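Quick check before the chapter quiz. The format below is the same one you will see on the exam, so make sure you can read both the input and the output lines.
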Amino acid sequence: MSGVLDSLPVVRQRLAGIAAAAGLALEPLPIEVITAPSLRLDSPDDRERLTNTVESIKPVLLILDPLIRLHRVDENDASQIAGLLSFLRELQRRFNLAVLLVHHARKDSRSSRPGQALRGSSELHGWGDSNLYMRRRGSQLTLSTEHRAALSVDHMPLELVQKDDALALSLLNEPDQPDPSESSDIQRVRRVMAQFQEPLPVQHLRKLCGMRMASVCFALNDLKRSGVVVHGPRGYQLKPVSLSRPIDPKGNENGKPPPTDS
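Here is the expected output.
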């Protein structure tokens, strides 16, 4: 089920392009389109209407596009946008469906990490379990991914493909598998901490890593469980590693007797 504001012929053309890119015919797919002239997610009446529609149709995916036209709250006010997102999370959990929210980046966001470039409050960045970011690097469109519990992939090149009368974005080539030692949030946090001798407060560590707080906390918890990181009153730091072996009073390493000649 999809909520959109474009004309129905345009919506159908876009859906046909997406289906064609996936090698599917559009007609047999169980797709419903919200045709109401307006939908305000901050309105109690519209929330009730959307809830009743979801309960009746029972979709597995609800697409809301774009967010900016579906509310009248201040996107920069965390308390206002949090209430809106809380409603969508409740909808997702109550009816066991996925919610895909389309949102825009700031116009001056080229130097920012994708998640930090979203318009409005950081609540929007932290809300998503999986985030996809489409950006333009020079003349090339790229797609980056960010997941709460999986590795991310950056800057996959995209191209616009035409099949018959339908258009759809497609990957130019298959992305390389991410290298866990370079791409994971855990390794990023570990590399930053290795540059400091003193403990780091979690807020300072988040800024140094350029990551969202949930990702930093997830990485720190994993590193604590594995014994790599210790937590004290002043913050987190890597656990010191002794490079020397224990020596017994007789000067033998590990307390073992010296080898004997055979």
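If your answer matched, good. Helices lie at 8-21, 44-57, 78-95, 123-127, 180-183, 185-193, 202-209, 213-225.
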